[in-house]
Automatic annotation (TrEMBL):
<feature type="domain" description="ABC3 transporter permease C-terminal">
    <location>
        <begin position="278"/>
        <end position="390"/>
    </location>
</feature>
<keyword id="KW-0472">Membrane</keyword>
<dbReference type="GO" id="GO:0005886">
    <property type="term" value="C:plasma membrane"/>
</dbReference>
<dbReference type="InterPro" id="IPR003838">
    <property type="entry name" value="ABC3_permease_C"/>
</dbReference>
<keyword id="KW-0812">Transmembrane</keyword>
<protein>
    <submittedName>
        <fullName>Putative ABC transport system permease protein</fullName>
    </submittedName>
</protein>
<dbReference type="Pfam" id="PF02687">
    <property type="entry name" value="FtsX"/>
</dbReference>
<feature type="transmembrane region" description="Helical">
    <location>
        <begin position="273"/>
        <end position="298"/>
    </location>
</feature>
<dbReference type="InterPro" id="IPR025857">
    <property type="entry name" value="MacB_PCD"/>
</dbReference>
<feature type="transmembrane region" description="Helical">
    <location>
        <begin position="21"/>
        <end position="41"/>
    </location>
</feature>
<dbReference type="GO" id="GO:0022857">
    <property type="term" value="F:transmembrane transporter activity"/>
</dbReference>
<dbReference type="Pfam" id="PF12704">
    <property type="entry name" value="MacB_PCD"/>
</dbReference>
<keyword id="KW-1003">Cell membrane</keyword>
<feature type="domain" description="MacB-like periplasmic core">
    <location>
        <begin position="20"/>
        <end position="239"/>
    </location>
</feature>
<dbReference type="InterPro" id="IPR050250">
    <property type="entry name" value="Macrolide_Exporter_MacB"/>
</dbReference>
<feature type="transmembrane region" description="Helical">
    <location>
        <begin position="318"/>
        <end position="344"/>
    </location>
</feature>
<feature type="transmembrane region" description="Helical">
    <location>
        <begin position="356"/>
        <end position="380"/>
    </location>
</feature>
Amino acid sequence: MILETFIIAVRSLNSNKLRTLLSMLGIIIGVGAVIAIVSIGTGSQQQITSNISDLGSNLINIDQGWRHRNSSSTEFTLEMAEYIELTSPAVKKVLANLEASGLLIKEEINLRATIVGTEGYYQEINKYYPLIGKFIDKAAVDNASDVIVLGSELATELYGKQNPLGQKIKFNYNDNNFVFTIIGVMEEKGRGITGDLNDQAYIPMSTYMNKLANSNQVSGFIAQANSSKDANEAVEQIEYFLSKYLGDDDQFRIRSQDQILDTISSVTESMSLMLGGIAAISLVVGGIGIMNIMLVSVTERTSEIGIRKALGAKKRDILTQFLIESLCLSGIGGVIGVGIGYLAAYLISNIGGWPFVVNSLSVMIAFTFSLLIGIFFGIYPAMKAAKLAPVDALNYE
């Protein structure tokens, strides 16, 4: 009986193909939009998360607080890096953040850049390695050597496609010129927890302290937790130490990479849900279209309903017939919408350059919702058809 009713429903829909397609259009657009938007949100979230994770491992950035920056206090010193390591078991390594902004000078080219005083472990903590040459090693730090490593963008702007290894370059800072020998060029990298790494140059920490800064004061620290699981504990331990050591929470500010990732993930998930909800509205609009066309269908087929009732069809038979027609409209529209959603997500992910990810749960929810829309908006027309009296239906013109 169900199979026969289904065949009748399909024949009825097939008798007017254009009207059927237009009736399904809202469902098709709604399902496709939900799948595409959720897929795009998930793919872009994965790309952002991956990019941030690639910039370093379990990083924690420690900056001076607003009260510290506006005072002459010299509490942030090079020795504090050792103190933080000793008092924070969850912390693997702490590097002082030594930065100076000045001009890199090559012949007639003056390029503003940030010079970072660091040591060899900087590569590991940021997952950032030389493309050519080498990075700052222990010997360079011990001897306070006048060597420099350029970020990829700085090397391109200063030397183009030439090999800069072994070249001399000047750095003008506080009206003083310092000459460095280029020993390496770093690989291309995105923005790290301390800024755009491609626009920075790197010199030995000891060279920075002895020649540029001439003091042991630093602007902040970069800490690395033992593991991702220990990141939150490491933040708590560092906060506890600094609160006791500095005596004022406004003297420092701590940002962990995991906190940044959590924030970004939360924002992208919320945006995906919001946009997916907006797209789902078109499903409701599609349901209204189905109700409208089913009401028209009931009116057009009143005589048919009367004949069927006269031949013994019961109310539930008529109700089932029109309800199945409504389900066919929403179900077929849902299937087409799933295909269009996959295609749209694939094309947009290729254009945007993020991973193509389709969440199977979003597909199931969108398709199930389309079926529920078909049932909800098909009940009233089906009940109206079922309630028609046989005599009135037969006499209808």
